[in-house]
Amino acid sequence: MAECVEDNDAESRISYGDYIVLKRGDVFKSVQVENKKKVIFEKQWFFLDNAVGQLHGTMFEIEAGGSLRVKMVKRAGSSLSNDDSKEAGQDNRHIVDDGRSQKLTRDDIETLKEQGLKGQEIVQQLIDNSTTFKDKTEFAQQKYIKKKKRKYESDITVLKPSTRLLAMMYHGREPGKICHLRYDTLAQMLTLGNIHASSKIIVFETCAGLVLGSVMERMGGYGSVIQMYPGGGPTRAGMESFGFPSHFHETLHEFPMCKVNALLAGTLDLSEKDTDSRTDGSRDGLVDSSQKTSGVLVEGNPEPQSMEVSIDPEEEIKRAEREKLRQQRAQEKKVKMEERRKKLTSASALLQGRDADGLVIASRFHPCPALMCLLKFVAPSRPFVVYCQYREPLIECYTKLREQGGTINLRLTDSWIRHYQVLPNRTHPVLLMSGGGGYLLSGTTVAKSVIKQKSEEPAAKRLKLDEKSPS
């Protein structure tokens, strides 16, 4: 029955064009599966063609020539560590790390690789030629084997992209691109923002699209996501690494931050044309007219300048090709402008209702102006969450929200996580871990009119005070 389920589960199998996450040890990398494309990962190159058709989560071994082979994982009880850990010492106090315990040199190891020995066989050779391996404790032997396997065994695991994997990948490789956002902090953001299907969420982030992709994954392709972006266009590298199907992208809308004030004031003109296109078009027209008159005709003179001028046929062909290419580019630009106008129209229609179900901000810019502006598009009794690597900007946001009103249940928290090594007789916190996971400001929006009515004193109490004042 299990084989039938795996064969029918086509979505869990790898195919060309899919985005996958490669894992080796604690290192991750996101790539797209393409035909005969060389992938470089952890100083090794290989091709992913043999991974097509296999299930996600399969472990492969890199063979000579860069081809992948499905690795048969050994069962527990027949592993290398269990066989070689039978003879072990009591403690490591007499072991001196002077670099002389290993008889094999680097040249010998390279020779073994050239002879075609695989990673497991090289690890066995290192164990046999180590003079201190048998004197180490059982824990030290397993640690030694694990370290050498990671170095010499060329095994990779192909995984399906997820929020946790991509967040760990970015935080481990390029944390500056995601504002040092850790995966546990990202999980808290999705929870505090109440991200769920069939909701309308406003996202303003500069984390390479990681937060945007996480929100879209949580919503499952139902609802609407409005991405507010600074500059000329949105950044979605992290979102594309999720490999969402086409119907997910239909729920995504975009709106520039530079036009938010015009939308709030009601002066946003969606029918205006791009001035650059008109200037480019007029410039193209002048160039065309000048080129037409440069050969035979002169501006202002309809008569031929000289009947003896001969036109080279090759020049005419090149000129026609340039003219065709110019028209094609102008048409493509016109189509892009029309698509951009349609996207702007659909996003503005969603924002004008001011009934968004949530707001998520994670930006390298100061969050206070964006928060005060975007909160106007959120409906009452809806959550919002703001991430910042530092505490001081969020303190300023907290103070302004308390002064302005319209929000309750404001909470400023910091994220902290500790990794533990959980093994028999050696469970302890991991020594090397990140110092902090940033800060989160969360709260709930309310209608200001309700707050004013509640803050006013009852009429009966005011009357009693007025009666007692003359006496």
Strand order of the largest sheet: 10-9-8-11-12-16-13
What class do helices, strands and sheet pairing give? alpha/beta
What fraction of the residues are assigned to beta strands by DSSP?
A: 15-25%
What's the total helix number?
A: 17
Number of strands: 16
The shape, in one word, is flat
What is the CA-based Rg, rounded?
Answer: 32 Å
Low-confidence segments, ≥5 residues, pLDDT <50? 1-10, 73-85, 274-307, 450-455
Q: Kindly state the mean pLDDT as a whole number?
A: 81
Quote the distance from N terminus to C terminus.
92 Å
Q: What proportion of the residues is helical, as a percent range? A: 40-55%
Summed up:
By secondary structure, this protein is α/β, with parallel strands linked by helices.
Q: Overview of this structure, please?
A:
The chain is built from 17 helices and 16 strands. It has helices at 2-8, 80-84, 106-114, 119-128, 138-152, 163-173, 183-192, 210-219, 237-240, 246-249, 260-265, 275-295, 313-352, 367-374, 392-404, 448-455, 459-468, and strands spanning 19-24, 27-32, 38-41, 44-47, 59-62, 68-70, 155-159, 199-205, 223-229, 252-256, 358-362, 383-388, 407-414, 420-421, 428-429, 439-445. The strands form 4 sheets. A 7-stranded mixed β-sheet has the order 10-9-8-11-12-16-13, with helices on both faces. Strands 2-1-7-5-6 form a 5-stranded antiparallel β-sheet, with helices on one face. Strands 3-4 form a two-stranded antiparallel ribbon. Mean pLDDT is 81; it is low at 1-10, 73-85, 274-307 and 450-455.
